Amino acid sequence: MDEKLIRVLKKALRKTTTSRIDKLFDLASSEQSSISEIKYASNKILELQLTVSIPVLSHHWYRARPISFPHTEIDTLDKLLEPPADKCRPGRCNLEGKPCLYLTNNPQALVKEAQVGVSEDFIMLQFDKIPDEKMGLPLIFLGVSRKHLANPHKLDTSYEELIVNSLDKQYEKHLYIETKLHEAFVAESNDTLTYRFTSILVDNLMETPGIAGIYYPSIATSGTAKNLALLPGQIFNKFNAKKAFYYKSVGTSEWELSDSAVIDDNNIVRWGYKVDPDLPKPIGVKKINPSDPDIFIAPWK
User: Fold this and answer.
1) CB within 8 Å of 146: residues ≥ 6 apart
2) Which of 231, 271, 227, 185 is nearest to 82 (CA)?
């Protein structure tokens, strides 16, 4: 890690206070703040936060798309991915006109994460890890508190130790900022408040060289499940999309699996195939489980 960068960060943390940090978050999340004020506060927050890109691997990731037309019209994979720039609305991690691919590691969180209506049909797309892939996607942890990643006896402590050892006495302020970020990312969405702050902050981080995207808490599960916001195309460096599932509304907040599809090598979605969705398997950070080299330590087990 860049020692000069660490010295600058430690100096900045020494000079600030938790009161000053609170004021920055208040400015960033206030409905009365202008876009320029939110950008200023977001940049100042990131200047005080140590961000490290580490590889994250899962057997599966999931994405949902609500639909109000015959599901068979979804006949190519691109119709299930991020929208084109000219149709991209602002989201928790993206500005208007700057699409990213939203995924979760927990299919049960999809309905809320994708804002599926209580009587709306939807399609779930499943991504599978490329066989023999070991390293995972290079992601920046944002607002993901360590306490949400693992029980202490199973935690791969190398990442945490890196931060503790690097920041020394300033570590507690780093953790305070991370906790505030976590609160921002699990807050109920409001187009004029939450999205403005988080999308501006993430847009800044997305310019970090070499990263695939951001790893952040799921609002639908109050942070228990984890989400990805990926730059377009990055998912295919480590994962394939081979299955899709059509869920039909059968009542208020009730759905049943009505059809399934395989996705061929030409990215054609072929409905009418009987395939089952795979249950989520453990997601991991860096350290490989010695008992199974293909499965990383499970933070949420």
Assistant:
1) 155, 160
2) 231
Q: How many CB atoms lie within 10 A of CB 33?
A: 18
Q: What is the pLDDT of residues 131-148, one digit of tens each?
A: 887 778 888 887 665 554
What does the domain layout of the chain look like in residue ranges? 52-285
CB 215 within 8 A of CB 143: no
Q: Which residues contact 200 (CB under 8 A, 6 or more apart)?
A: 35, 38, 39, 42, 95
CA nearest neighbour of 25 among 13, 11, 41? 41
Q: Provide the whole-model pTM.
A: 0.82
Residue 157 structure tokens: 């402590």
Helix (H, G, I), strand (E, B) or coil at 63: strand
Which DSSP string corresponds to 89-142?
PP-SS--TT---EEEES-GGGHHHHTT--TT-EEEEEEEEEPTT--S-EEEEE-
Q: Which residues contact 150 (CB under 8 A, 6 or more apart)?
A: 156, 297, 298, 299, 300, 301
Residue 127, φ and ψ in degrees, nearest 5 = -105, 135
* Cβ atoms of 206 and 100 closer than 8 Å: yes
Nearest to 286 by CA among 149, 83, 84, 177: 149
Q: Is the sign of the CA dihedral 281, 286, 288, 289 positive or negative?
A: negative
Question: What distance in Å separates the CA atoms of residue 77 and residue 169, rounded to the nearest whole number?
Answer: 49
Tokens matching residue 82: 């991020």
pLDDT in tens, 208-267: 888 999 988 776 776 677 889 999 999 999 999 999 999 998 887 788 999 999 999 999
**Per-position DSSP letters for 241-256, written without gaps between them:** EEEEEEEEEEETTEEE
DSSP 157-179: THHHHHHHHHHGGGHHHHHHHHH
